[in-house]
Amino acid sequence: MKKVYMENLGCSKNQVDAETLIKLLEDDQFTHTTEVAEADLIMVNTCGFIESAREQSIESFFSLHEANPQAKIILSGCMAQRYAKELQDELGEASAIFGNRDLSKIHEVVRQVFAGDRVIELPSYPDLANEVYERNELLSFPGSAYLKISEGCNHWCSYCAIPLIRGGLRSKLKETILIEARTLIERGIKEINLIAQDLAAYGTDGPDKSSKFMDLLEALVALDGDFSIRLLYIYPDAFPPTLAKFIAEHKKVLPYFDIPFQHADQKVLQSMGRTGTKESYLSLIESIRNTVPEAVIRSTILLGYPTEDDKAFAEVLDFLSKAKLDWVGSFTYSREEGTKAYSLRGEREHKKANKLAQGYQAQLQALQGPITNANLARFVGKEYEVLIEELVEGEDLAIGRMYGQAPEVDGLTVVLGRSLKPGQKVLCGIRAVNGLDLEAVPVGGALNG
Question: For the domain 128-377, what is the CATH superfamily, name and number?
Fold first, then answer.
């Protein structure tokens, strides 16, 4: 039986694709290995969102090819989808270039590759009714999983290449999502992380153009089982007006809000294609906290956008000082060909502006760090469920997350205790803040084994 090694790069949506590809290849008589040296097939599931991600994808490709030059190697994912023609000419080492739309076509691609052919395959999306994929091995830590409810995006923010890569918004069928959710619950998943480019846009690609997200969320909450739902990524400009109240009334949905404000200066926001303002965003934050007092709010800020200057950045700092968000991530603008913002400045000016943006990033972190630290202090002395993710070898310690910590992007909870198991929830008392992490001890044992 042949073995496949999967290198997954990029976002959580890419991770779901990688998990799907592994299952499809297992159906084709492959076994998944975590050792590249023993693989017959290497798959590099790439990210193509920004320049640094593409550089990492190419570096990973050559590193893996060098580690096992005898294996067939397929470049898949977002970078393959967008730059197939260029990669076909420049990446002769690739056995195949495979896009990210109809993943079921991997069967035929692999068969051709092992028959000696070099394949360039960018299939279109399948009919929604046929897009029902299974996943066996999950690449998340035990106890949690991502559930993708849509592909692509119709927002067309001026800096973003996602619609160029993934296409326009394509909401999955509600019943397909519910089937996937039931499967995850039945296999013991405690935390389902809903993902999309914008969760609230779900259904707006339908005939009446209205969001169906709240209907979907209501159906998910009604499912039987001991699980929680975390919502990752909801645009502020179309934030569902009933969402905060719904979360306050339904404990299965964690009071965690991931809202990418991106900026606070009016001119920058308008150029980005955003319709909100600093004032409307502050009002949204206040409304959420009034409705859900225990709310944890995360956001991302884009720095170095072409129309940003010192005055515009000062608006960001003022916004953050007033918003007092729990978590803030930032990234610098990447000049992406084909986007509306691409022509706003040339490459030489972009490189100069990027250095300035890195300085902005340092200032942002210096401001936000103490805010996050102070916000974390409110958890000390209280009890929360912690999802245990991994054990610290040789010590009576485990690493986990409470409701205010999303996977991969936020701080963690360090739990001091014995007989803890990854994938279980444990009621813990928070006793200290350590940097961006919490320290805790079990108070009631495992709630969910």
Answer: tm_1862 like domain (3.80.30.20)
- Other C-beta atoms lying within 10 Å of the C-beta of residue 390: 15
Asked whether 395 and 147 are in contact (CB, 8 A), the reply is no
Binding-site residues for [4Fe-4S] cluster, in ranges, read: 11, 47, 78, 153, 157, 160
pLDDT of 299 above 90? yes
Start-end of CATH 3.80.30.20 domains in the chain: 128-377
Residue ranges of the chain assigned to CATH 3.40.50.12160: 2-121
Assign 89 to helix, strand or coil: helix
Q: What is the pLDDT of residue 130?
A: 87
Q: What is the pLDDT of residue 447?
A: 45
Cα(156)–Cα(52) distance, integer angstroms:
21
CATH fold group of domain 2-121: Rossmann fold (3.40.50)
**Architecture of the domain whose range is 380-448:** Beta Barrel (2.40)
pTM tops 0.85 = yes
Calculate the average pLDDT of the chain. Answer: 96
Rg (CA), the chain: 22
Alpha helices in 77-144 (DSSP H): 78-82, 84-90, 106-114
Reply yes or no on whether the pLDDT at 446 is more than 80.
Answer: no
Q: Measure the CA–CA gap between 290 and 281, rounded to whole angstroms.
A: 14
What does the pLDDT read at residue 132?
A: 81
CA gap 34, 7 in Å, rounded: 9
Going from the C-alpha of 302 to that of each of 118, 229, 299, the distances in angstroms are 39, 27, 10
Amino acid making up residue 426:
V
Beta strands in 19-62 (DSSP E): 30-33, 41-46
The span from the first CA to the last CA of the chain, in angstroms, equals: 34
Binding residue ranges: 11, 47, 78, 153, 157, 160
Q: Dihedral through CA 337, CA 342, CA 348, CA 349, nearest 10?
A: -160
Checking DSSP bridges between strand 119-121 and strand 144-148, what pairing results, if any? unpaired
Rounded CA-CA distance 157/430 in Å is 40
Distance, in Å, from the CA atom of 449 to the CA atom of 446, rounded to the nearest integer, reads 6
Which residues does 362 contact at the CB level (< 8 Å), separation at least 6? none
58 token code pair: 């190419």
